[in-house]
Amino acid sequence: MPRTILHLDMDAFFAAVEQSDHPEWRGKPVVVGADPRGGRGRGVVSTCSYEARRFGIHSAMPISKAWKLNPGAIYVQPRGRRYAEVSRQVMEILSHFSPDLEQISIDEAFLDITSTQKLFGGAEAMAKRIKAEIRKETNLSCSIGIAPSKFVAKIASDLRKPDGLVLVPEGEVERFLAPLEIARLWGCGPKTVPLLQAMGIFTIGDLAACAQLELINKFGQVGLHFWRLAHGLDERPVSDDHSAKSMSRESTFAADTGDEEEMRQTLLSLCDDLAYDMRRHEVRGRTITLKIRLADFSTFTRSRSLETATDTSAELFHHASELFASFNRKGARIRLLGVAVSQLQQGEGQMDLFTPEAARKDKVDRIMDDVRKKFGTRAISRASLLQNRRDSQWIRDEP
Ligand code: TTP
Ligand code: MG
User: Fold this and answer.
1) Which residues contact 169 (CB under 8 A, 6 or more apart)?
2) In whole angstroms, what is the distance from residue 67 CA to residue 75 CA?
3) Is 200 within 8 Å of 175 (Cβ atoms)?
4) Known catalytic residues?
5) What's residue 240's pLDDT?
6) Is 60 exposed, middle or buried (0-12, 13-18, 19+ CB in 10 A)?
7) Which end of the chain has less Cβ packing within 10 Å, N or C?
């Protein structure tokens, strides 16, 4: 079923809050960031008003450089608590328009309005009403993009900033994307852009015109990912899961068990399901927790934190197995096993797909995800991880 996704991003957020709280600053260049100390300050610009952007000032620029560009601007230090308060107001307004709300940063959120748009007279009318309510409640402007997927909605909201509203209907996605630079593709960072440019690919349209196979041959699964995005194919659901603190799966055995093979299989399938959920939501986790409930209902947890966050089944299973092996159940039967991941991080916007970490990403996971999408989650289980089980140290021999 075609979806309708709305992406909202506040305009010059911190600076706009400052201008709203200090009416005498409206219409003037306002720079929020480190103390410029007369041009000797060492921090950076958090953001600046659109009036300041005309001088070439932007987020992450050294504050000393901003000072050089415009020493007469109004320089203010960030007031985090105030911005968080306004952010909550904005999210509260959005939540009235659909229950499927996913906040992705302090001033940005996705809303799945597929089923609620009718109640507000259609997507465009809904967007106008959201903008009006935000302006009334907070005195701030925002930009909205509406499209059949998250990827396209996010690009659309950025296109006519500030105070923008861009709708991309179902049939026009590819035409909309074609002239845009490849750097707008999720995962296409500064390392990836030159590689594509060397192939004569500069716009998303150039990429869409490439044969899928050519991209796969050259870049593997990443190539397929780019090809899909270039054609507007992005099925990521809108969900608030990754703003939650953890994700988990658990399973109670039909009968309490002491069978090591059964425990091992269960743990594997829990890790597989959990990793699949994480990938669907584009999150990775750094802390893995194993939960064990014995037949007498006593419950234990064992955790470990990784250097870098993961979303692969193999890595989850590896750590969950080691945690399990380190637990001495003293011969007791097991009633329930659970696996949880926490310290979640979101992939979007921060990841360049050609980093060594991404290159290591388990290819098997990708293939299995495709099969699951087509045939359902139970269609496939990972035999490879169960091989060599006889010589593995999976469960320490209990005395
Ligand atoms: P953005 O939405 O990226 O920027 P913005 O809202 O200021 O401007 P735009 O109209 O282009 O959306 O970021 C939201 C807030 O996050 C921003 O107001 C300040 C903060 N921020 C930083 O502190 N440092 C940064 O490098 C960036 C990009 C943002
Ligand atoms: Mg913004």
Assistant:
1) none
2) 9
3) no
4) 108
5) 65
6) exposed
7) N
